[in-house]
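Re: your question from the hallway

Yes, I did run it. Sequences:
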Amino acid sequence: MNEQNVIPDELRWVRGRPGDRLDENRPTVKAIGRLLKHGETDTVRKLLRRWHPRDIVELLVQLPLKRARKLFLSLPPGPAAKVIAGLNDDFRAALLEDATIDRLIKLFDSLDPEDAVDAIDELPEEVQARLLPHLRDFGTISELMTYKEDSAGGIMTRKFVVVPPDWTVDQVINEVRRHANRIKKLSAVYVVDADRRLTGYLKLRDLLLHPSERQVADIMRTDYVAVRSDMDQEEVVRITERNDLASVPVVDADGRLLGRITSDELQRVVRDEAEEDLHLLSGISPDTRPDEPVLGIVRNRLPWLLAGLVGATVSGSIVGSFQQEIAAAAILASFIPMVMSMAGNAGIQAATVAIQGLATGTIWLGDLPWRLGREVLGALINGLAAGIILAAVVLIAGPYIGIQEPALLALTAGLALAGVTLLAAVLGATIPLLLNHFGIDPAMATGIFITTGNDILAVLIFFVAATAIYL
Amino acid sequence: MNEQNVIPDELRWVRGRPGDRLDENRPTVKAIGRLLKHGETDTVRKLLRRWHPRDIVELLVQLPLKRARKLFLSLPPGPAAKVIAGLNDDFRAALLEDATIDRLIKLFDSLDPEDAVDAIDELPEEVQARLLPHLRDFGTISELMTYKEDSAGGIMTRKFVVVPPDWTVDQVINEVRRHANRIKKLSAVYVVDADRRLTGYLKLRDLLLHPSERQVADIMRTDYVAVRSDMDQEEVVRITERNDLASVPVVDADGRLLGRITSDELQRVVRDEAEEDLHLLSGISPDTRPDEPVLGIVRNRLPWLLAGLVGATVSGSIVGSFQQEIAAAAILASFIPMVMSMAGNAGIQAATVAIQGLATGTIWLGDLPWRLGREVLGALINGLAAGIILAAVVLIAGPYIGIQEPALLALTAGLALAGVTLLAAVLGATIPLLLNHFGIDPAMATGIFITTGNDILAVLIFFVAATAIYL
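Structure:
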C-alpha cells in the first residue's frame, strides 16, 4: 500500500512503559512535528487513526504548542473529545484557543456534560455565551454551571451509582454492571432513602464479600463523610485528607445526594490551590498560565508591578526626605539595598510559612501566642546574625574605602538590619493570620504588599537610626 | 455513675457532618483543652475511650499543639497508632517530637510496616538510629527504607492483591475477600506471570461484571501504566495525571511488581511538591514546617537571608561606587527603591510562571523561541507602562519638591525602569529553563537569587543611565 511508503519507520509510537517512555518516542514526536510543519496534516491524521487517545495526549504535550493546536484542530470530534477529557485545564484552554464555535459545538456535544462543563469553564466568557445555547445538553450544562467553579458542586461529577437500602447485594451488582462503562473511578455505591437523602455507602469490595441475597441496609457503612455543594474546594480537600478518603459524596442543604468528587478531581484541586498561593505570593494573578499570550502577561502582572511601584515610590519619598543627610554622607545610600533586601526576604519567608500553615491546617489559632513567640525569637536571632555580619564587613572594609567613623556606621547598619529583620518577620507572620481571621484569602493580600510594606519600614528605620547614631 | 458527673454535657462530640462540623465541636475542644491544662489527662483519656480514631485526629488538630502533644502521648499504643496513621506528616512529626524511644517502639510495633516507615522517615536521624533495631518489623522496615524517600519505591505500599492469569474470577474474589480488611483504597487487582512480572490488571468492577468461572487472562486489562521504583515522585504524579489514574503499580527494572501507589499518596505528593516550590521561591528550605521551633527558623531561613544579604552588599557597593554622583544629586538615591522593587518583582513573576510550567509539564522546550518572544514583548509593555507612570510622577512632582531639571530626571527614571523590567523578566523566564536543562531543580536556585541578581543589575542600570542622561 502507498501509505506504508509515506509513513517512515520512526513514526512507530511506543506505548507508555515506565521510565523509557518519553525518550523512545522522541524521534516520532519530531517526525510528526516536521510533517505538521510541512502542512501534511492529513498524513498525520491518518497515522493517528488507530492510536489510543492517551497516546495522542502524550504526543500533543510533547509537540510545540503551535503544532499541537494544528493537529488537535484537525482531529475528528470523536477522538478529539476523548483527547480533551484527558488533558489538564491549562493545556486544554491553550489548545482550544483557536477553535471556531462550530468546532467547539461538535466537540462538546461528543463529551459527557460534566467533562464539557469543565472545558467550557476554561473558555473566555464571550465564547461561552455564544457557544452554550447551541449545545445538545444545554439544560444539564447550564444547571451544572450554576455551582461556583471552586465549590464542591462545581467539581463534583453526577456520575455515580445510587441504591435504596432495601435492595439486595445482587440487585446492587446488577446496577453497578449497568453503569460500569459510563463511570470512571467507581469505588463506592451510595445508599439513599426515599427522599434521596444519603444514609450510607458500600465499597465495591463489600459487594464481593457478602452473599448476594443480603440486604443493603444490613451491610452498608454509615460512617460516611459528605460535603455540602456550596463548600469551598479547599475545605473539601482538607476534609478528605484528614479523613483519608479517596472520593467524597456531595449533598445539598437537606442532605440529598447530588454527586461525588473523585480522587483525580481532588488531586487537581490540591495542585490548583497550591499554584494559586504560589502565584499570589509571587505577584501574579491566580489564573496565570505558563503559555499566556502577551496580553495575559500584561493583564496578569502589570497591576502587581504597579502596586509594588506605588509602595516603592513611598520608600523613595522617605529616602528623598533624608536628602540632606545623604548629601552629607552619600555612603548611607549604599545601605538602602541591604536593608530593603533583608526586610523583603524576611517578611516573605515568615508570610509563606504562615500561609502554608493555614492552607494545610497545621496552624491553630489557639497556638498563636506560642507561634508568634517562636517567630519573634527566631527573627531576632536571624536579624542579629545578619546585623553582626554586616557590621563586621563595614568595620573591616571601612578604612580601605575611606568611610568616616566606621564604628558608628557599623553600629547603625547592624542595628538597623537586626531591627528591620525582626519587624519584617513579625509582620510577615501576623498579617496572613489576621487576613484569614477576617475571611480574606491571605495569599491574595500578602506577596508584594508585605514585601513593599517592609521596604518602606526598612528605609525609614535605617535613616532614623542613621540620623540618631551616625550623623 | 460518677463518671457522668465528671464529664460535662458540652463534651459530647458531634460526628463529622458537612459544613457545621467544626463549629458544633468548638465547645468540646475548649473543654478538653481546659481539662488537659489542669492536668486531668486521665479524665480525658477515659472520655476518648469509645471515640473513633478519626474524631480523635479531628480533636488533636483543633487543640493547641502543646496540649495535643500531651493528649497524644497519653493515649494507649493501639489507639495512638490508629490516630497516627491518619495524620499528615507535619503534624505527626510535631506530635512525636517529645515521645520517648520506649513509647515510639510500642507505637510503631502496633503499626503496619508501611505506615511505620512513613512516620519514621519524619523523625530526626539520631532518633531513627536508636529506634530501628528495637522494632519487631526491623527487616521489612529497613528494606522499605532503602528506597529514596521521594521515589516511587519510597511512597508505594506493599499491600495489594496479586493473582496469576490462569485463575478464575471466583478465585480472585476469594483472594480479595482474604485481603479486604488489611488493604485500604483497593481499586484494582494486579495480574503477574510466573516471574512476578506485571502483565495486566482487573478493576474491582470487572470482578462484578464477569461470570465467576471466567479466566483472568481472558478479561484482564493490559493497557496498564506502571512506574519504576526509582522514578522520582514528581514524575510519578505527572504520569498519573496525564493518564488520569487513581493509583499506579510500581515495578523493578525487570518489570516485577513491587507495590502500588494509592490515590491519597499521590495527593500528598502533589501537595508536597507544590509546597517545596513555594518554599524555595520564598527563600525557605524545602523541609520547613509551619510549627518549626526557633532553631528551625534559624536553620531554614538564615542561609537564604545571608545569601540575599551578599547580593544586596554587591548592590550596595555599586551604589557606593556612585557616591560622587549621589553627593552631587542626592535625589538619585530616592530611585533606588523603585528600580530594585520593579526588578525583583518582574523577575520573580517571570520565574514563577516558568517554574510552574516546568512542574506541570505545560512548557515544551520546542516552544522556547515563542515563549521568550512573548515574555520579552510582555515585559517591554509592562516596563514601558511603569516607566511612563514614574516619569509622569517625577515631571508633575518635580517643581514642588525642588528637583533640578525634572525632565531629564523623568527620562532617566522612566528609561531605567523600562530597561530593568525587561531585563529582569527575560532573566527570570530563562534561568529556570536553563537550570532545568542542566538537571538542577529550578525552584531551588531561583527565588532569592533571581531577586538579588536583578537588584544588582537594577542599581547598575539606573546609575549608568543617571550618569549618562541626568548628570
